[in-house]
Structure formats: structure tokens, C-alpha cells
Amino acid sequence: MAIFGESLLHPRLWHLNRHSAAGAVAAGLFCGMLPAPFQMLTAAICAVKFRVNLPLAILTTLYTNPLTIIPLYVVAFEIGKFILDMMGLEGSGRFVAPPEFSITNMGPWLSTAAHWLMNLGRSLAVGIVVFGAALAVIGYFAVHCLWRFGLIRAWRARAAKRG
Question: pTM here?
Fold first, then answer.
């Protein structure tokens, strides 16, 4: 924590408004696509760097979990493969099915899953960046639109209440 010094005390990291919420969701959605041990740490670093809501950025990374990461990475792989094919570069070829999940043998499964991810290579890496960026942009504008919609609705409710 000492490496961040005074920057963790900045009020914009803890205040929730339309801009800090939208930026935090964007940071969390992008960082959530990164490999598991780095998601929350990179979301926190992005929140500090871009001065957006820190707790929301970290919380948003939780959309990826053991149940959702495989389908998200399949989509990212296909996006990366498509982009590399369009550029005339060689990707990782065909998608290989992930290892079967086993709660009883979690250690060996994690090792096998990590090996599986490493073999997906360049297509997955490109896809993660592009898909994460697309999710971030969509999330950013969705929060702005939803916040504005809620604000307009509150204004109309107050106006109706007044008469």
C-alpha cells in the first residue's frame, strides 16, 4: 500500500458519480478479461491511474469466475482468430475443448486448465484485449445512459409530485 502513498486518499477514488462509475465499470470489465491472479490488482491500478471509483472497479471484475471464464475465453479466442485471419497472420488454429472441471481434484485441474490456456496462444491474447476493450466501451456508455435515464426519471417523478 505504501507504493501508492497519498494517491489512495484521493476523493475521486471513493466518490460515486456518473463519470467515476462509468470509468470504474469500464476498467473492471477490461481487467476482468485478464488472467485470474491479475484482475483485481490491475483494476485497482487503473482506478488509481484514471481516478475512478476504486471499489466499483474491483467489484466489476467479478463477472469472470470459474463458471463464466471458459465461455468468455472461447468468444475471445474466436475474436482473436478472426482478427488474425483478417490480417493474414497465423493464429492458434482450432479451438480445443477445455479440460473437464473437477471440484474434487482442483489442483490438477488448475494445472491442466493453465496448460490449456497457454496452448491457445496468440489468438486468445489478441481476443482478450479486443473483447475486453469492447466490453469496456459498451460498459462505459451503458452506465452513462442508465445513469442519465435514472436522473430523468427522478426529475419527472419530482415534477409530478409538485403538481
Answer: 0.78
